[in-house]
Amino acid sequence: GATHYYDFVLKETNFTKLCSTKSILTVNDSFPGPEIRVHKGDTVFVNVHNQGNYGVTIHWHGVKQPRNPWSDGPENVTQCPIPAGTNFTQEINFSSEEGTLWWHAHSDWSRATVHGAIIIYPKRGTTYPYPKPYAEKTIVLASWYKADVMEVITDALTTGADPNISDAYTINGEPGDLYDCSNETTYRLAVKYGKTYLLRIINAILNEETFFGIADHNLTVVGTDGAYVKPVTVDYIVITPGQTMDVLVTANKAPSYYYIAGSPFADTVVPFDNTTTTAIFEYKGNYTLPSPIPFPVLPVYNDSDAAATFTNKIRALNSAKHPVNVPQNITRQIYMTVSTNILPCPNNSCLGTSNGDRLSASLNNVSFDAPSMSILQAYYWNLSKDVYTTDFPEKPPTYFDFTGNVDNITLYTSLGTKVIMLDFNETVEIVFQGTNLSASENHPMHLHGFSFYLVGKNKGNFDNATDPLKYNLIDPPEVNTIGLPKNGWAAIRFYADNPGVWFMHCHLERHSSWGMDTVLIVKNGGTKATSIRPPPAYMPPCSKS
Ligand code: C2O
Ligand code: CU
């Protein structure tokens, strides 16, 4: 493959939206940030120059980074932040992904404005497994806050309460016609009658999953998370933060304007941004504008059944050229609850709950306590003492009734930096069990370093005697993020064939900040080719070591 070089200059830039101007952290002055375009098999070096005011890291979401966790990016998991005024070069190898992925900051909430698309074309000399589209367009969904996002999360963690919700969603940086002071800049996707377009849709929203559609036009999903799927034609899609979807749309309706819209899928009682972002699907040519402009029919915000109807249709392409490799037998099963909880607040000073506690979140009732040093460096140099422990519980607390009655269980969790150790090439199944503690919600669970197969998912409590018999081991979608349904479970499988230190977490930023995270450490195999690569000559310094 070819080698590409990019410079990412992180700096504060002024943007005006929703009638007010503020400074946001950007890459190369743009929001969303620059696109990386490669072919499968290529290598990219990105020199990240931090000219902002605080330490930041950058992550290449969905890129497996074989044997090279050094460039993966999550703050204090694989590296310490790049200090302001310094730079760090990351190497990204596109060994097996094909389709759309994205990059984003992976420290505090800076990913709100620091993100962009990664487009991976088929290996040179090969083609898409679907008819070549006339043109391709990237659609990035994101959140916009009038306030400074770093203050939003700092305030929430200080008071222990829910963070403030966003003021708008955006499509390619623009809120759209339904928000104040926004209709001059609404994103317009120009199309020619009769042509088919590939939309590469990325959900970079911070805290809500999304329904998305185009008025009067069908969407044909052909890929997700950098892998192909069997084409499926739908009226709307559901996309969680972290996910990408490649969708074909044919401009075959009367030439006109049609609204494109994204609205939240948030089946919850906790506060969320219940607004709708729009763009315009605009045919070229002369016509009189309809009034009103047709608007897509999207499910209401809490329609979990509509979300499941969509996600249950997604199957891996599983063709001769793009086969699946689903582990049929597992050597390791990890069963983990996913919940929001509370934690005692130091000095009872919090406002988060009535008795001075703060909101938190956990996996198997362990709330991830981010270390102040990189776990990868601690592991590699045998400095794990005081950084992490290897006793992550592989089964939930027995007193949890998960999705059932929660009256007689404690909401309290406890802090820990507990990692999961895996031997090289174990065949792993992780069952995520949504658990009703302080509130039941959907959770987009994401794993670094791998894509995995979503072999099963349903409502209620997982039953290890019967549910595995119903798994799809034939053509499950190969993804890096799954929407764990509210009051339900999801099972994933993968080969632990990538030695390294890999973060796993909910991609709702407020949950991740509250501790809905853990780390998988995959040990080296017996050879150089199955071991973590040596570290680069320079890594950003860790102040505590
Ligand atoms: Cu999209 Cu841990 O990241
Ligand atoms: Cu979550």
Automatic annotation (TrEMBL):
Annotated coiled-coil segments of the chain: none
TM spans (from-to): none
Reaction(s) this enzyme catalyzes, per UniProt: 4 hydroquinone + O2 = 4 benzosemiquinone + 2 H2O
InterPro entries documented for this protein: Cu-oxidase-like_N (IPR011707), Cu-oxidase_2nd (IPR001117), Cu-oxidase_C (IPR011706), Cu-oxidase_fam (IPR045087), Cu_oxidase_Cu_BS (IPR002355), Cupredoxin (IPR008972), CuRO_1_LCC (IPR034288), CuRO_2_LCC (IPR034285)
Cofactor stoichiometry and binding remark: Binds 4 Cu cations per monomer.
Keyword Endoplasmic reticulum in record: no
Pfam family, one: Cu-oxidase_3
Cofactor(s), names only, from the UniProt record: Cu cation
Domain Plastocyanin-like as annotated: residue spans: 11-124, 137-286, 391-524
Annotated localization: Secreted, Extracellular space, Apoplast
Keywords, comma-separated and alphabetical: Apoplast, Copper, Glycoprotein, Lignin degradation, Metal-binding, Oxidoreductase, Repeat, Secreted, Signal
UniProt-listed SUPFAM superfamilies: Cupredoxins
CDD domains: CuRO_1_LCC_plant (cd13849), CuRO_2_LCC_plant (cd13875), CuRO_3_LCC_plant (cd13897)
Enzyme Commission no: 1.10.3.2
Primary enzyme class: oxidoreductase
Similarity annotation: Belongs to the multicopper oxidase family.
Role according to the record: Lignin degradation and detoxification of lignin-derived products.
PANTHER family reported for this sequence: LACCASE, MULTI-COPPER OXIDASE
The protein's name: Laccase
Natural source organism: Hevea brasiliensis
